[in-house]
Automatic annotation (TrEMBL), chains A, B:
Protein name: Phosphate acyltransferase
Residue ranges of coiled coil: none
Record bears the keyword Cytoplasm: yes
A GO-annotated cellular component: cytoplasm
GO annotation terms (biological process): fatty acid biosynthetic process; phospholipid biosynthetic process
Catalytic activity: a fatty acyl-[ACP] + phosphate = an acyl phosphate + holo-[ACP]
Principal subcellular localization: cytoplasm
Domain of life, source organism: Bacteria
EC number: 2.3.1.274
Quaternary structure annotation from Swiss-Prot or TrEMBL: Homodimer. Probably interacts with PlsY.
Annotated function: Catalyzes the reversible formation of acyl-phosphate (acyl-PO(4)) from acyl-[acyl-carrier-protein] (acyl-ACP). This enzyme utilizes acyl-ACP as fatty acyl donor, but not acyl-CoA.
Record bears the keyword 4Fe-4S: no
Amino acid sequence: MSSAQPLQATPLSPRTQVTLSVDCMGGDHGPAVTLPACKAFLDRHPEASLVLVGSADALAPAAAWPRTTLRTATEVVTMYDPVEVALRRKRDSSMRVAIAALKADDGGVPAAHACVSAGNTGALMAVARYVLKTLEDIDRPAIATVMPNRKGGFTTVLDLGANVDCTPEHLLQFAEMGAALVSAVSGIDEPSVGLLNIGEEAIKGSETIKRAGELLRAAHQAGQLNFHGNVEGNDIFLGTTDIVVCDGFVGNVLLKTSEGLASMLSDFIKQEFTRNPLTKLAALAAMPVLNRFKRRVDPRGYNGAALLGLRGLVFKSHGSADAYAFEQALGRAYDAARNRLLERVQDRIAAPSTGTAGPSALAA
Amino acid sequence: MSSAQPLQATPLSPRTQVTLSVDCMGGDHGPAVTLPACKAFLDRHPEASLVLVGSADALAPAAAWPRTTLRTATEVVTMYDPVEVALRRKRDSSMRVAIAALKADDGGVPAAHACVSAGNTGALMAVARYVLKTLEDIDRPAIATVMPNRKGGFTTVLDLGANVDCTPEHLLQFAEMGAALVSAVSGIDEPSVGLLNIGEEAIKGSETIKRAGELLRAAHQAGQLNFHGNVEGNDIFLGTTDIVVCDGFVGNVLLKTSEGLASMLSDFIKQEFTRNPLTKLAALAAMPVLNRFKRRVDPRGYNGAALLGLRGLVFKSHGSADAYAFEQALGRAYDAARNRLLERVQDRIAAPSTGTAGPSALAA
């Protein structure tokens, strides 16, 4: 951290009681995955409560669970439902009811602190935006996820697809929100931010990127942000910075490219080891080592993307998550809520040097 | 191929004699790598000739080689030279002289058909553009490379960094040039083209991408291009299409992200297998299998990116290429020249349905 001024302190004390609302019907597997995950999560988090949302039938097994409230919803947003269907037709979807549970005025039960769904991303963002609205001064909510890096940690990348065209101001807000997320979830007080570009030099990139770099440098000089400078695609895996900021188009492409490459390489390894009896014998010897490798890069271990910039915490689990992966998403939401991510985002966005963004014209 | 009309025939007969000009000083290793590669290439290609460019000292070992012309150049563009230095100060660089060897009026020796350099990409593109100029109707040259896919083949991706801001017309030209490249180098007559986007639906993406999709669909309907539709990042590795088109910013990010991820995963595997005596024993058993895997995804095997849209064929080798990798780049350039890539690009660009691009204002 080379800034002359210190970054702002983070005086927020952790919440002792956390309630998560869970869309139990979302994802490829629905309650078959979400319920066991919720049960395991409850067992491991004695200070957590859950609001489970789904059809009465689906939730029946959870009727006698401790620290659990059941809330029925008659509809389910499928993985293929267009945004309009999720938004306008399925008004009693488990997704929507789970998100609405974050609002303080929602019935007699206290509001939940964070919501988790494995439902389709576009619908989740749209419904969350509609139900919760965006934070003041936030034009565009963003989606942040983590990718493993060589340092043994994770690089947080945002935006991952919520916004295809971004202004420099949006990119600055993504940086601020990403910093709030990393400080809340990973406990890093002054996470470093890199601006994804096609070269490390400040003169590289499009006009939008160059101007974003100026805004980020100004925020750094004002002591609001630990801005490292430009980074390139490979820096995500080097762990050069804690956070990498990019527009949603680029973020989505790099995420899907990475998933595609990792999956191809893993299949190639499998194919080579199952080629013939001899290679299968080698596989037997190599299995413990390969399993260790697999665990190390297992995407289930860091499942749970954050929707940032909304008046409520929403986490998105991978649609194909199994119970273990879904439990990790619950854990991430729990950590975020416990460490007051929402307040951290608000604090950062309200800070003077970052109040340059336009009105939240798209919030409605 | 679902188009009603057939694609244009490719009546170009292969060239029997091919001459490559080689910047022997470029790359991280210079002549120590390029000369052995050239020698091996000559041995394997009895109908090829080389024009070797470099300092007199460096080229001395090649003095008695068959089918080889030596041409001295007094300067070298380093990997760190800014474009301006390569362009304006080092006028007698091996890079520039090698590119100039493509011009018919260049001294008494017949013009070379393609040029190969491992020098820095920015400088290579700038010098090539300055010396050769762009083809008529081409605003922006592009850089195309291949990435391995699950089908056992390769996906050609462009642009990879020459152009940060692209218009829909540029993306259409990239598609045409990519199709010419794949048909020349891989022998696929009607290579399929995918437009990189963040969803398969035609309504996804930025305005530029949507409009590019319209142009590509029109070219498909006119029988000029085998346009598949939108593809996503993972489709590169699935091999959904032969060609994936994107702007240079996105292309550069996805290339560097892929390189970074592949390199991290390979290092993780190495780390796990060298962790302790037991894992080292397992490595011994697994070694033949792992080596087979390594060969399968070895980037050296498909080294050699094409600079497309210029009035001459220029191929860029990875700067860190070893002799094997550099020879592959020579081989790609050879295949392209032999199969008349330049004429193929010209034919495609001149075709009526794709003559929609603006004047070549940036050609000078």
